[in-house]
Structures are given as structure tokens and as C-alpha cells.
Design goal:
2 copies of one chain form a homodimer.
Chain A: E1 11-13, E2 28-32, H1 33-36, E3 42-49, E4 59-61, E5 66-72, E6 74-79, E7 82-87, E8 91-94, E9 103-105, E10 112-119, E11 123-128, E12 134-138, E13 141-145
Antiparallel strand pairs in A: 1-2, 2-3, 3-10, 4-11, 5-8, 5-10, 6-7, 6-9, 11-12, 12-13
Chain lengths: 170, 170
């Protein structure tokens, strides 16, 4: 029966980010629908954000396309060029390899949610736009580095690393 | 600006099916969001069905995972095992290679719509569950055959071909 029992899907809270970034992801919860349904070629999650919660650090993917649709409430999409308010039915998409870091944040006073779909590349790399960090995923394992590829060993902001930050880093 | 202007997305009506099947797809319209946003790794469409309209012939994909979420109205999901009524927020998913032919049909008195996501394999094959036809896609071109792989040259029902139909063929 391919209709998905959404409430039976695994729920993930928090993030795989090292501290202090993991602690900034409070109020975020993700229902892993695609995994629950046995899909392997792309991921499908419903992400729920409490008032004030961000979905992620602002990031862009090297090899994976992404698509999102807001399902409930009001979210703000933050990119290099600024902010866009999005409501139920609004969609956004990001082509792999385009270096425009993005994230959703719930700046409203009520919960909000969105559907997110992303390809599953064997090897993936995502670059964070507001902090000096990258994630490298290979064989299901994640490794964090600075933008220059050296091992991450603690928070370093972009200015201190000599990298000009872009857009809104709120 | 990755927010998608949904009304600017290309709209497709009808199907690529040969007649008489193409004529059975009246009342179907698809907004090609993923293509509009430049995504290449998976397709994302919003399909609108008038009262009575089906989204497709009942089919299953050999190599491509699929995911759907009902957005508005009420749809019926038809599979080998029977029918499931689905409403806004209900989701379904189909793993590549599982031979359970499925389709949505709008049996209600009002329009309905759903979001559909599917991987884009280089070479793809889909088998129709209620009629003796398969589609083979290669290099962006479609070719229709009977289930036995011989060239399709006109409608042939499954019983006449000695294939036992499964499930509900309404």
C-alpha cells in the first residue's frame, strides 16, 4: 500500500552539525517520508519549525538538486540576495552547484512546515554561507572542514578567515 | 531568486500516449516546476485533474522512484490491491522496479491536484497494468511496445494477449 502513514515515518530532531551550530537548530523536527517508503534515489522529508527555528545553516549543495514547498505557516527563505516570505503552496528549487547559500527560518509566532526533496548523490559536499565550514559526505559518513578544505576544529567566522560573507547572515 | 513563479512554469496538457489512450487523458494539466527551475536530477510537476479525469494509465516504473502529495481536492489512488481515497496532505511513494501499477483518478465532482516527483533515469521503461503496452524511453525519445517487447501497433487488451489483469482496471 504505497499511501504513506506519515505519523509512522522516522522523526529526526536536531542536526549533525558540530556545536555550537547544532544548538542553534532547536525547534526543528523532520519526518523522513521517503526513507520510510523505501525510496533510495531522492530524499523526501517534512520539516516542522517552531516559531523562531531555522531549518539549517545557510548552505548550497555541490551535486544535489533540491526542491521545497511550504506546507503550513509562514517561512522566510534567506539567500545571498536577501529574504523572501513564503506561505503554503509557495515553492523554491536549487540547482546543484549554484553557489547561492539558502535556508528557511521561521520568523513568525506560530509553527510552520515545508516539504523538502533532494537527490542522493554518492559523494556530496555542501558549503555554508555564513560560517567557515563545509560538509563532505562519502559512504554515508560526514566530515566537516573549513572552506579551504582543512579539518574543522572549532567555529571560525568568515571575516576571521578572510572570506567575504554574502547576503543576510541573520 | 529560487522562489518559483508557479504561473510562469510550462503547462502540459494531454499525454504522449498513442490513441485511444491519449483521448482518455482529457481534463489533465501539468505545471512543470522542476524543469522551469532548471532542475535536471528529478522532475517536479503539479498535476491538475478536472472532475472525472485520470492522471495517467495505471503504470509502474522500472528504474525511477516516484513520490506524490495530494495538494487540493480528493483523489483516488488505484493499485493492484484496490483503491485508496486521498486528500490534501496525503502522500504516496513508489519504489522503482516494484511491479504494482498505480495511478490517480479524480472521481469527485470538483477539481483536484497533486505534486509528483520522479527521478530522471537515462533509460527508462514503464509497464501499464490494465492494457498490453509498455513505454521505453531512451535519449529523450519514447517508443511503445506490447508487454512482450514487440512494437505496439494498436490497442490490445490483456485478456486477448493471454496476460491476467490485476486489481481494479476502472
Amino acid at each position: 500500500m504505497p499511501k504513506i502513514d506519515i505519523n509512522a515515518a522516522p522523526v529526526k530532531t536536531g542536526s549533525i552539525y558540530p556545536e555550537p551550530y547544532n544548538g542553534q537548530m532547536a525547534g526543528r523536527r523532520s519526518q523522513r517520508l521517503g526513507e520510510h517508503a523505501g525510496l533510495t534515489q531522492f530524499g523526501v522529508n517534512i520539516v516542522h519549525l517552531e516559531a523562531g527555528a531555522p531549518a539549517s545553516l545557510r548552505h548550497w549543495h555541490l551535486r544535489e538538486d533540491e526542491f521545497a514547498m511550504v506546507l503550513t505557516g509562514e517561512l522566510v527563505l534567506v539567500e545571498d540576495a536577501g529574504e523572501t516570505v513564503m506561505r503554503a503552496g509557495d515553492c523554491a528549487a536549487w540547482q546543484a552547484g549554484v553557489p547561492d547559500a539558502h535556508r528557511f527560518i521561521n520568523r513568525s509566532q506560530a509553527p510552520a512546515s515545508f516539504l523538502i526533496v533532494g537527490s542522493k548523490a554518492e559523494e556530496e559536499e555542501a558549503t555554508y554561507g555564513d560560517v567557515d565550514m563545509k560538509i563532505h559526505i562519502s559512504g554515508g559518513k560526514a566530515r566537516f572542514t573549513y572552506h579551504d578544505g582543512s579539518d574543522w576544529s572549532g567555529p571560525r567566522d568568515l571575516a576571521a578567515s578572510g572570506i567575504a560573507p554574502k547576503g543576510d547572515s541573520k
